[in-house]
Amino acid sequence: MLIRLTYASRARNLGPMDVKDILESSKRNNQALGVTGALCLSNGIFLQCLEGDRAVVNALYHRILLDPRHQDPAILDFDEVTHRQFSAWSMGLVSAVADNQSLFLKYASGPEFDPYQMRPVALRAFFNELIQNTRWIG
Ligand SMILES: Cc1cc2nc3c(=O)[nH]c(=O)nc-3n(C[C@H](O)[C@H](O)[C@H](O)COP(=O)(O)O)c2cc1C
């Protein structure tokens, strides 16, 4: 059964190489697991979308939770889906480069990007737009 899980967490003690390291292990592991998705980092908050088999995504999420590079995880959306949004990405990174700022803020209710406050319908629209129109890294 194909599902999509979206969660947010707060970055914690991130060193300069950490995001690169997270992305590299994500690409390697997720490809082997048949997991696709996207990872955003903006305003000190990670927002990650993971797509794949329900049991596989659950297990991966629980492994990611153990990572000391983030804290305060919250599942924001979890649903069965008919198809993948990120079929081409084992894990794409979207960072808060200037080009992406307006997209982040378009879906923010306040002056800063805060996915903890976003509703599932807004999260889906955000990721949808992200795919069409974003500067991806990695
Ligand atoms: C916000 C965040 C997102 C992550 N996403 C993934 C992911 O999608 N896939 C993954 O394998 N590891 C992810 N990681 C890294 C894992 O916590 C862990 O470091 C990694 O899977 C270890 O891989 P390795 O044993 O192959 O080195 C993430 C870490 C953080 C902090």
TrEMBL record:
SMART domains assigned: BLUF
Location of the BLUF domain: 2-92
Pfam family, one: BLUF
Coiled coil location: none
InterPro entries per record: Acylphosphatase-like_dom_sf (IPR036046), BLUF_domain (IPR007024)
Protein's name in the database: BLUF domain-containing protein
Species this protein is from: Hydrogenophaga bisanensis
